[in-house]
Structure formats: structure tokens, C-alpha cells
Amino acid sequence: MDSEDTKAATSEAPASEPALEAASVVKPKTVEAGRPPAKKAAKKAAPAPAVKKKKPAKAKPVAKAESVPTAKAASPAPAVKKVKKTKTKPAPQTNAEKTVKAEPKKAKLAKAKPEKVKLEAVKSEKVRPKNAKPAKVKPAKTKPVPSQTAEILDSQVAFEGPLFRVLRDHIIEPGGRESYRDVIRHNGSVVILATNPGKRKKDPWVVIERQYRHAAGQFLWELPAGKLDGGEQPIDGAKRELAEETGYSAKKWSPLVEYYASPGFLGESMKVFLAEGLIAGDAHPEEDEHIDFRLVKLSELLEMVDKGKIIDGKTLTSILLYARQLGLKRRK
Predict the structure, then answer these.
(1) Where do the domains of the chain lie?
(2) Which helix (H) or strand (E) holds 178?
(3) 173-192 pLDDT per residue, tens
(4) What CATH architecture applies to the domain 188-326?
(5) Of the residues 245, 268, 287, 303, which is catalytic?
């Protein structure tokens, strides 16, 4: 019976635990009588539960002999991860660096453009021949400018008096038209805007006269004025007329404006002078002149203009122009 039990024990052991035969180094010496061999084998296989703990530091005892080659084969895995890390470097940083480095290059290129233009300009200058003649510019064909004055074919004196004369002229006008014109010829006249400073700089005192005019059929408010003698200078005639009609002289004289009162038939040019800083004197008008004069503020004269009390052309022209130069506005 003992021998059959031992045979059964030896035959059952390799069938139930095949891995233990390879792992266990100690061979069974003897089998005690009365004990089943399978239980002994179970007791010898007690270290197997230690493998189930799965501690990371310890390997299974079964794989001690065979774990060496498998561990060597699995070792390259971490190396593959390192390669992936090198490939996946932060791309945005490199792109930003590239753009930052590329910007100064663009700036350098932008600075270099004018230099290229300068070189091209220098080259173009060098290409020009030294003895090159400038291109001839053909003058544009212009129409003949007509004469600015009329051609007088014939002139006859129709009337002559102490102040003016009337001429009948046969003329060809600048436009080529032939006609007859009756013209009053006059030596010219001067007008004096005599002023004295008032409390306000923009509102000085102005000398104004009142006299009867037969041509107008009424008394008119006017500035001092008179005709020029033959060959007399306008400024001398202005000083003479102011002294004769009012007795005033002035410290400062300056031209204000020149105009033609009625150029359709009257050839009289009227030159207006501004007289400032008046000095009183004795008036000595001509025998046929009856003049009443006074000093009136410029603002009051503007009111007289607005009310229609001043209708003389030379007075309207001079007062309105002088008030505009001073910046004095008319009252509404």
C-alpha cells in the first residue's frame, strides 16, 4: 500500500502544479508513511500566495529565471517616450521667436528701399549724356490780343467851358466796332476824408459839408472836394481844397481809393485822400461857393447813410470804405 501511495503522490504532483516543478529547487527526499503526498506538496507550495500581493518592487518568484530576458525586452519603452517628448516641443514658442526675429529683417528691408531708389536715381543721372541739349518747347499759338484802347479816327470839340469840355469822337473800339461817342473831358478831382480822433478809435470825428447843388436841385451832405488845376499833383490839390473850403490842415495824409463816378460819358477820375490830425485855420472859399461844414462822428454818418440823408456818390464811397477798414459796423 505504501508503494502505491507514493506512486500516486508522484503522479498527481506534476499534474496539479506544473509551474512549481520548474520553480522549486528542492526535491522531495522521502515520503513519510501514513500521510498523503498531495498535502505535503501543498505545504511546500505555500510561497505562492506571496506573488498575489503585487508589490511593485518585488517580482513573482515563478518568473525569476524567465523574467530576465522579458525585462530586457521591455526596457526600451521609456526611451520611446523620451523621443516623443523631443518631437513635441512647444511649437508656438518657436513660431513667436521666428516672427520676432523676422520683424527686424522687414524693417531693415524697408530702410534699404530708399537707398535702392537713390542708387537708381544716381544711375539715371549717369546715363544722361553730358552734352545733351534740352528739348525745344514749341511756343503755343496765341490769338492776337486786341488793343485795350479805342482807335480815334476823328475828334471835335463840341463845347468848352471853365470846368470841362465836351468832345465828339469818331472811334473804333477794341472789339472792332466803329462808333461815335460824346465825352466830357475833365482834369480830375480830389476828395478829402478829414478826421480827428474821438473817444473811441473806431468812431472818429469827420469833417462834412452841406451845400446846394443845382444839377441835383437840392442841398447835399458831402465831403470836401474840388477839381485839379492843369498839371497839379493830386496830393497838392487835396491839401489846397481842404484849406480853402474848411481852413483845416492835416498832419498825416494817405491815399484811400480812386474811382470813376460815371464812366459812360464822364472822364473825371476822383482820388480820395485820408487826412488825419486836423489843425484848425481860416477858410477862404471861392466867390461862388457857400459852404456850411461841421464835425460829425463816423457812427452818425453811417446812420445818415442808412436813413437816405447822404446820397452823394463820393461821400457814400469814402465813408463806407473807411468804416469797413476800421471795423465799425453799421447799426441796424
Answers:
(1) 2-64, 151-183, 188-326
(2) strand 178-185
(3) 998 999 999 999 999 999 99
(4) Alpha-Beta Complex (3.90)
(5) 287
